[in-house]
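C-alpha cells incoming
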C-alpha cells in the first residue's frame, strides 16, 4: 500500500524519504510507486487510491474524495456532449462529502498521514489564503497534530470547521476553541507575506514545512481527481480544466495522467491541460503568454488563486506540464468569472466557490473559440462548492486568530511564550 521510491524529476536519482527537493538542480521530486496499475481498495474516501498515495496507513475519519459525474445542465448550455464534472465539495446527493467544501481536503489528509508516519511529531507550519488552512485545520482536529497556520487578515472569513467544538482530538491542549492543537495567526499582508513569515518559522527546531508544491503527498492527493475520473470513464479525458493559483493542481493532474498512461488501460494520450487564472493577478498566465505581469491588485474576484511565485519554470513544474500536454492558460476577468459562476449554479443547481468559477469561464471561452469540440471528453474540476449545502446540516465554527502579526519575529515570540 503506497510503496514507492522518491525520485528527482530531472535525473531520476533516488532521494531520502520526506525530502522536498533535488539537491543537484532544485527539481521537483516524484513518487515512483511499486504498483504500476491502479487497483482501488475497499477503503473510505481518498484512501481507495492507496496504491498511488505516499502513505502506509489512513486517517479513517478523513473521508473526503472527488466525485465525477456527467453534466447535463452546464453541458447543455455550452453545447458539449461529453462534459464530466469532478465535484470537490459538499453535495451529499451526489456523494460528495468534503468537510471543508474544497479540494484542499485531498491535499491535507495524505500530507497529515505522511507526517504522522514520520514519528517525530513536529509542529506543522502552513501558509494559506484560506482554503488550504481550513483543510489542514480540519484534519488537525481529527488527529491532534500540532499545527500553526499563517493566514492573511482578509482571508479569516474562510477559517471555519464543521467539526463540533469539543470533539476534536487533543482537546484541552488547544489554543483555538474547537480546533485541537491549532494556532491561527492573522498576517497583515497578502498570501505572499504569509508564506514569507511561515518560511522563517518552519526553519526553527521542532517545526516542519508543509512543502507546498514540493510535497508529493499534496500533489498525489490532488491527483486523485484525475484517477477518479479515469476509473469512472474507463479512460482519461481529452481535456482537463482547472483554475489555479500556484499551478500545483495542474502539475498533479499531469503526474496522475502519466501514471494512468503507464498503467496501459486508460489511453495513451495525455489530457490537455487548460489552466485558468483571475486577471490581473495572473503570473502563470503572463509567463505562458510571454506578457509582463501587471501590478498587484488587492481587489479581485478570488484572491485564493494568487501566488506571486508559482513553481512555473522549475523542472517538473507548471511549464513542463503545459508543454507536455499541449496545454494552455486563460486569463479571466472578474465580470467573466461572476457570469460563469451564475451560469454554473443555475444549470447544475449547486453553489460553488469563486475559484472554480474561473475554470468555468475558461471552459466557456474554449467552447466558443473552438479549442474543444462538442464531442470531446472533457473534465472540469470544480475545486470547491456546497457551502450553502453544508450549512443546512452543520453549524460552522469560526476559527479565531490567536494573534495578528506583521513580522516573523512576532510569531516566534508568541510561539516561544506558549512552550
Amino acid at each position: 500500500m503506497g510503496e514507492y521510491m522518491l525520485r528527482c524529476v530531472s535525473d531520476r536519482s533516488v532521494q531520502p524519504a520526506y525530502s522536498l527537493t533535488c539537491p543537484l538542480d532544485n527539481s521537483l521530486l516524484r513518487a515512483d510507486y511499486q504498483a504500476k496499475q491502479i487497483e482501488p481498495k475497499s477503503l473510505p474516501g481518498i484512501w481507495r487510491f492507496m496504491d498511488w498515495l505516499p502513505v502506509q496507513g489512513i486517517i479513517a475519519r478523513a473521508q473526503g474524495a472527488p466525485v465525477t459525474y456527467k453534466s447535463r445542465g452546464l453541458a447543455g448550455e455550452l453545447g458539449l456532449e461529453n462534459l464530466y464534472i469532478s465535484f470537490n465539495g459538499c453535495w451529499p446527493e451526489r456523494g460528495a462529502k468534503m468537510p471543508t467544501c474544497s479540494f484542499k481536503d485531498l491535499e491535507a489528509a495524505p500530507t497529515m498521514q505522511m507526517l504522522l508516519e514520520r514519528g517525530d511529531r513536529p509542529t506543522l507550519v502552513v501558509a494559506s489564503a484560506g482554503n488550504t488552512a481550513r483543510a489542514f485545520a480540519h484534519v488537525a482536529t481529527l488527529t491532534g497534530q500540532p499545527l500553526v497556520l499563517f493566514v492573511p487578515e482578509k482571508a479569516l472569513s474562510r477559517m471555519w470547521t464543521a467539526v463540533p467544538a469539543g470533539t476534536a482530538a487533543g482537546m484541552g491542549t488547544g489554543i483555538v476553541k474547537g480546533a485541537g492543537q491549532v494556532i491561527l495567526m492573522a498576517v497583515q499582508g497578502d498570501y505572499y507575506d504569509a508564506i514569507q513569515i511561515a518560511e522563517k518559522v518552519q526553519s526553527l527546531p521542532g517545526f516542519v514545512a508543509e512543502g507546498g508544491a514540493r510535497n508529493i503527498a499534496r500533489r498525489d492527493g490532488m491527483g486523485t481527481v484525475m484517477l477518479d475520473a479515469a476509473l469512472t470513464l474507463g479512460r482519461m479525458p481529452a481535456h482537463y480544466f482547472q483554475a489555479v493559483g500556484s499551478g500545483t493542481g495542474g502539475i498533479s493532474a499531469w503526474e496522475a495522467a502519466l501514471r494512468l498512461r503507464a498503467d496501459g488501460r486508460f489511453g495513451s494520450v495525455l489530457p490537455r491541460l487548460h489552466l485558468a487564472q483571475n486577471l490581473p493577478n495572473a503570473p502563470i498566465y503572463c509567463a505562458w503568454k510571454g506578457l509582463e505581469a501587471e501590478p498587484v491588485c488587492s481587489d479581485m474576484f478570488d484572491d485564493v488563486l494568487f501566488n506571486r511565485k508559482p513553481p512555473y519554470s522549475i523542472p517538473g513544474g507548471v511549464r513542463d506540464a503545459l508543454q507536455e500536454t499541449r496545454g494552455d492558460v486563460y486569463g479571466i476577468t472578474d465580470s467573466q468569472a461572476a457570469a460563469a459562476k451564475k451560469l454554473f449554479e443555475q444549470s447544475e443547481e449547486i453553489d460553488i466557490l469563486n475559484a472554480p468559477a474561473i475554470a468555468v469561464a475558461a471552459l466557456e471561452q474554449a467552447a466558443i473559440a473552438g479549442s474543444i469540440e462538442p464531442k470531446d471528453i472533457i473534465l472540469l474540476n470544480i475545486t470547491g462548492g456546497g457551502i450553502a449545502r453544508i450549512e443546512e446540516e452543520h453549524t460552522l465554527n469560526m476559527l479565531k486568530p490567536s494573534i495578528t502579526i506583521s513580522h516573523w519575529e512576532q510569531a516566534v515570540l508568541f510561539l516561544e511564550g506558549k512552550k
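note: Residues 168-180 have pLDDT under 50 and may be disordered.
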